[in-house]
Every structure is written in C-alpha cells, then in structure tokens.
Amino acid sequence: MITIPERIILANLPTKIEKLERISAQLQGPSIYIKRDDQTGTELSGNKIRKLEYCIREAIDQGCDTLITCGGIQSNHCRATAAAAAKLGLKAIVVLRGHDPDTYEGNLLLDHLLGAEVRWISSEDYRDHRMDIMHTIADEVSAKGQQAYVIPEGASSGIGAFGYFSALQEIVQQEQELGISFDAVIVAVGSGGTHGGLLLAQQLLPTSHRIIGINVCDDEDYFIKAITTVIEESAHYLDQSVTIPTEAIEIIDGYVGKGYAQSQPQELQCIKDLASLEGVILDPVYTGKAFYGLVEEIRKGTFQDLQNILFIHTGGLYGLFPHSASFEF
Ligand SMILES: *Cc1c(COP(=O)(O)O)cnc(C)c1O
C-alpha cells in the first residue's frame, strides 16, 4: 500500500459515473462513460477542488492563514480557491491575468462574492513572472503578521496532483462496484496536474488504464515537460522514486483550435449536441474542446480497439455564461 499525503475534506466524493448511451450509439465506437467531477460541489465545482484538498491541507499544516493563487479572468481554479478559503475562514488573494472589467460575470463575479481579494496583472507579467509576483504578495502578507501559502496555476503542484492520484483510486473502486473496466481515462489538459496525478496513480497502483489528455492550450511537448515536472515534485512526498517513461504520457494535440478560451463553431456545436442528447453541459474552455476532440478521434477510428472510455467532466460551468454570445440558435 502506498501512503500519500493527507487531505482536508472539501469535495463531494465519490463523483458519479454515468453512461452516455445515446452519443455512444450514435458514434458506434467505444461506450463512453462520464465521471461527474463537475459535481464535486456547487461553489467548489470542478476538478480543482480535488487538488486543493491536498494543497490546503499542506497550507494549514504549515500554519498559513492566507491562500494566494493565480489564473485567467474566468479561472475555475481561482473561484474554487476563493470558495474553499471562505468555507475554512482563510483569506484568498487571486492574481488574475488582464484588466479589471466594468462588469463581473461567471467565476469573476463569484471570486468577488466569496470575498477574495482580486489583483490584476498584464498577460506578459502573468506569463513570465506570476510565481515571483505571488511570492512578493506573500512577503507583503507576512509583513502584516499573517502567513501565506502560494498555490501555483491550476493547483498543478506536486502536492495538488495527489487529488487525481486518489481520483484514479476512486475510479478503480467504482469499476468494481459497477462491474465495468475502463480501457482509457480521458481528460482535458490545461495546466497538467490532473493528467499528472492520474498518471502517477497509473504507474504506482496495480491498474493499467491508458491515461489520455487532450490539451486545450500550448502543445504536446509543453505538457510532456509540465507533467513530468509535476510528477517529479509529487515523488518527493512518497518514499519511493518514480520515473515516468515519456511514452506513457499520452497527449492528443490538435484540439486547441483558435487558442485558449477561444471557441470555434464546431466546438460550440458539440456542446449543444451533448447537452440536448444527454442533458450534460460542458464548458467552452476545457471540457467542450476535449470532448469535441474525443468525438473526432472516435470518428477517425483512433479508439476502435477500446471498449469502454471514461471521460472526466472536470467542470467549468460558470465559465460558460460569459460565452453566451458565441452560441447561435
Ligand atoms: C483547470 C481545468 C481543467 C484542466 O486541468 P489541469 O489540471 O489544469 O490540466 C479542465 N477542466 C476544467 C473545467 C478546468 O477548470
């Protein structure tokens, strides 16, 4: 048995696994199942809370009372951090990329409602200096006699990845209960911690699922490096060494489309199709692109040897509404 770090319990777990009957029949490929990590909570909804359970436990163990993190203007991760902080009586400072807009919607509205302190930095500073900027804010916090814990983008740190290590353990348990085995687990990749955690578990537990990521920004090379780094960091928390062969990191690149948080008509159509066919709402930034990628790959025959595929719905619902004008009806 592997001992992993302790977590603080915040998410509604285990999340349900449902079969997507009609879309599977329509595509005539493998049976597609969906794991509802969009239902980890309401305020806490999505994949980030699984990772935050481990990060925040570490923060509390270190005696911290302030969480600092960063993300895009509609960051699901910043909103989940703000919600977790409010729930635990901690302070959250979220550093967002861009400019303070006139009206607040989606996750940004929630960041404010949840009492997070919101700070804005330029795209260039975000790209090149976000960690330094957060550490400078942490120094500011400690000068006031408080203690801050810095959570990197997406909580995709070594400790955060344990959220998806335990998610794969949860999936293995559910396979036994449901009497199904999944050949592959498919997930959207944005900062890599979700994929990294799943892969760490796949390597260390007696399971053999393929873990397949569909990136929604950057490219395959970028994520092979990012995921390797996350896993190396996670290994420091374990009493065993971990080496992930590069070929185990399966990224299907080609579905970034117009770029991060920018949609193409076919991706939006895929969101509409799944919603009306199955009653499941995806988001345009992550799950909509990844699910569109999955459907296209099934159409191309990429997964013809597989029987059962599990797609993890990583959340993002609040980020849908600011995109309402992109949809045509
Ligand atoms: C952050 C996010 C992802 C990507 O997870 P990473 O661990 O950052 O790769 C996928 N879906 C949603 C809805 C997200 O908010």
TrEMBL record:
EC number(s) on file: 4.4.1.15
Cofactor(s) the protein needs: pyridoxal 5'-phosphate
Boundaries of every Tryptophan synthase beta chain-like PALP domain copy: 11-315
Catalytic residues identified in the record: 75
Domain of life: Bacteria
Enzyme class, spelled out: lyase
GO molecular function, one term: D-cysteine desulfhydrase activity
Annotated keywords: Lyase, Pyridoxal phosphate
Residues that bear N6-(pyridoxal phosphate)lysine: 48
GO process terms (BP): alpha-amino acid metabolic process
Family classification: Belongs to the ACC deaminase/D-cysteine desulfhydrase family.
Official protein name in the record: D-cysteine desulfhydrase
Species, as recorded: Paenibacillus nuruki
Gene it is expressed from: dcyD
